[in-house]
Design brief:
- The N terminus is likely disordered.
- 38% of the residues lie in helices and 19% in strands.
- The strands form three sheets. The chain has a six-stranded antiparallel β-sheet. A two-stranded parallel sheet has the order 1-2.
- Among the domains are: 70 residues, Arc Repressor Mutant, subunit A; 76 residues, Roll (SH3 type barrels), CATH 2.30.30.90.
- By secondary structure, the protein is α+β, with helices and mostly antiparallel strands.
- The N and C termini lie far apart (54 Å).
- It binds zinc ion.
- The site of zinc ion has 5 residues, from helix 4 and helix 5.
- Zinc ion binds next to helix 4 and helix 5.
Length: 229
């Protein structure tokens, strides 16, 4: 049985908790393969890590060989703490240090592992407890509650002619974010569906106000969350 010391969780354990949290928001277990794909590593390495994680005290994950893995309440608390650090850092980097939007995610990924709880709370106070990060993700509050009462739909769910305001863009893929910024799409941008292809899920989208048209693959449309207008 491996004991956790005072030095806290290792960077890679923190990354695992975060990815498991993201992949189990539907309440289901996530699989070794899904985690391996997200990290771009071999499934065997993930299995090793999950086995070790499952034996750590206090227990952070429930790992069942053929079901996959999910977080214990303790693991979820740790994951939310990391997510809070990440999103507060992104807001700080963007608003105070004026980082380009495309650079904040990678920088926050590095810093989230090393800043102290005191640093986190200083940022929070300086930023006046922001509710959302620059991509539109809700920031867990000090008690780790996610307060998000927005009613959002995926862009991919919109029908022909429907319009939506961009409220959240998944920040997992930096290249994708940079791409969206260069074509003028950010939180607050209004989009209208002008053509849909049911056979492959691509959509042609108009950036309202500019008349500019873009064709989005299903994957892109599923990464953009909008508020219907
Ligand atoms: Zn991020």
């Amino acid at each position: 049985m491996k004991k956790r010391g005072d030095e806290g969780l290792s960077h890679s354990v923190q990354d695992y908790l975060k990815i498991i949290y993201m992949q189990t928001q539907n309440g289901q277990y996530t699989s070794t393969v899904a985690i391996a794909t997200a990290f771009g590593i071999r499934s065997a390495s993930v299995t090793n890590m999950l086995q070790r994680l499952a034996e750590t005290q206090p227990t952070l994950v429930v790992y069942r060989k053929h079901h996959g893995v999910k977080l214990t309440p303790e693991g979820e608390k740790e994951a939310l703490q990391i997510i809070r650090r990440h999103r507060l850092l992104e807001q700080f980097l963007y608003q105070v240090l004026e980082y380009p939007l495309g650079d904040i995610h990678d920088e926050a990924e590095r810093l989230e592992h090393v800043i102290s709880p005191f640093f986190v709370e200083r940022i929070n106070t300086l930023m006046k407890s922001p509710a959302f990060d620059p991509h539109g993700h809700p920031i867990p509050d000090r008690d780790l509650n996610l307060n998000d009462s927005r009613k959002l739909a995926l862009l991919s769910e919109l029908q022909l002619g429907q319009k939506g305001l961009v409220r959240l863009i998944t920040d997992r893929y930096t290249d994708f974010l940079v791409y969206l910024t260069t074509i003028g799409i950010n939180t607050g941008t209004e989009l209208k569906i002008v053509q849909t292809n049911s056979y492959d899920g691509t959509q042609q989208v108009e950036i309202v106000g500019t008349g500019q048209l873009q064709v989005f693959s299903k994957a892109i449309s599923e990464s953009i969350h909008v508020e219907l207008v």
